[in-house]
Specification:
The protein is an alpha/beta fold. It is built from 8 helices and 13 strands.
């Protein structure tokens, strides 16, 4: 049987041009989510954040109630921390699901008041160094780098205050008393802890120092959210005032609101933030008015 041999024409192979390596899936907004999940799992086992940095022995503690809209942005900014603990009060949305997907531990706890709730979260942390955040806050890249660079030299007996920059009505607010708005948030729980205040809580410690990087605060979704928050907080403050024996004063009801407006808008230069600065000053005055009116209402 005859066998016919076919000629094979050589094909020139052109070397592939060098290309930039693709970003890992965890650093892109879109892509293979499954691969990104596996990458994060391996990073956690290796003790690294998904940016390749060694995780710091810090616990990030956040209290939540229906924070699905905010919690992902918050937790993504602290993936360099070894422990993320969420103390949730019966959220009806996907807060816990989203937080868990980002490596957070979820603890359900009935509401105790702001101070006691945050203290509970700090006590449930795995590490003594606590970075306390609200769900609508984000650690800026500058602040993250500062904590990472300074961590080994932090003083356990010092509470570190962080400047907070708030975003409202389409702009960062830099006046009117809203910035730098330093918040005591980084502390060692063996020496410092949250107080028991139901509202306007604070960390109590021996001494305080300031960090430089900003904490970004996405404070109100819109004007309606601000008004609702003012209504809620004025009620809490009025109850606290009555418990401390504060009596209603018609003089203070009349005088304090306009003084507060002048303080925010003129003295602290809220006018430099445009219409949002004016809205902030008016709402600050209105909140003071509500607080005193509610004291009168409870007598």
């Amino acid at each position: 049987m005859a066998i016919t041999l076919m000629a094979i024409t050589p094909v020139a192979v052109t070397p592939m041009a060098a290309s930039k390596p693709a970003l890992p899936p965890t650093l892109t907004c879109h892509g293979n989510e499954r691969l990104g999940f596996l990458t994060r799992r391996f990073d956690k086992l290796a003790g690294k954040s998904h940016f390749g940095l060694m995780k710091l022995p810090i616990s990030v503690a956040v209290i939540t109630l229906n924070e699905e809209r905010n919690i992902e942005r918050c937790l993504r900014s602290v993936q360099w921390a070894d422990d993320l603990v969420i103390v949730d009060t019966n959220s009806a949305d996907r807060t816990c699901e989203v937080a868990s997907s980002l490596g957070a531990r979820i603890i359900n706890k009935e509401w105790l008041g702001f101070g006691p709730q945050k203290a509970f979260a700090a006590k449930e942390a795995l590490h003594d160094w606590i970075l306390a955040l609200d769900a609508d806050e984000v650690v800026s890249d500058e602040l993250a780098r500062e904590i990472q660079q300074e961590f080994s030299s932090l003083d356990a007996q010092t509470v570190y205050r962080i400047p907070r920059r708030s975003f409202f009505l389409g702009r960062w607010i830099l006046h009117g008393g809203w910035y730098p708005d330093r918040q005591a948030r980084l502390f060692h729980r063996q020496y410092s802890m949250w107080d028991n205040s139901a509202v306007h809580e604070s960390v109590k410690g021996k001494k305080f120092e300031n960090l430089n990087g900003d904490l970004h605060h996405f404070v109100f979704r819109d004007v309606a959210h601000q008004v609702a928050t003012n209504n809620r907080y004025s009620s809490l403050l009025a109850v606290n005032d009555r418990r401390r024996g504060q009596r209603f004063s018609l003089w203070k009801l009349i005088v304090k609101p306009p003084i507060k407006f002048l303080e925010c808008y003129l003295i602290k230069q809220g006018f430099r933030d445009g219409l949002p600065g004016f809205a902030i000053a008016v709402n600050a005055a209105y909140s003071i008015f509500l607080r005193w009116l509610k004291i009168w209402e409870t007598e």
